[in-house]
Write a structure and sequence with these properties.
3 helices, 2 domains, mainly alpha, single chain
Length: 115
């Protein structure tokens, strides 16, 4: 005697099989995305390491000499700028001040009033 499987059991098995297929497909897609994300993170990490190395190399190339030498260079540059500004003016007026007043030029209308 043959027994047939009730319809509700066949339906439940079909739903379970369909659910397994969906879960396996989703896991496959998610695994692919995780691999792609991992590869991207590795590439960006390598880029950051290369950038950091380049910045360190550049910093070593442009490193200044001791502060005493730096002060001397700044004084020479300041002297050059002041001399060039004085040469540009017909009748220069010199103000003594700090680094903010260094090489400041007055606007033309103000210069015309002083003349």
């Amino acid at each position: 005697m043959e027994t047939s499987t009730p319809a509700w059991i066949r339906a439940a098995l079909a739903v379970a099989l369909f659910t397994c297929i969906i879960v396996i497909g989703a896991a496959y897609v998610l695994a692919g995305r995780l691999v792609a994300l991992n590869n991207r993170v590795e590439i960006e990490t390598l880029d950051i390491v290369a950038l950091r190395t380049s910045i360190d190399d550049l910093a070593n190339e442009i490193r200044f000499s001791p502060p005493a030498d730096l002060g001397h260079k700044h004084a020479a540059v300041r002297d050059f700028v002041i001399q060039s500004q004085l040469r540009r003016a017909e009748d220069p007026i010199v103000f003594i001040g700090d680094s903010i007043t260094e090489s400041h030029s007055f606007p033309q209308p103000f210069v015309a009033i002083l003349s």
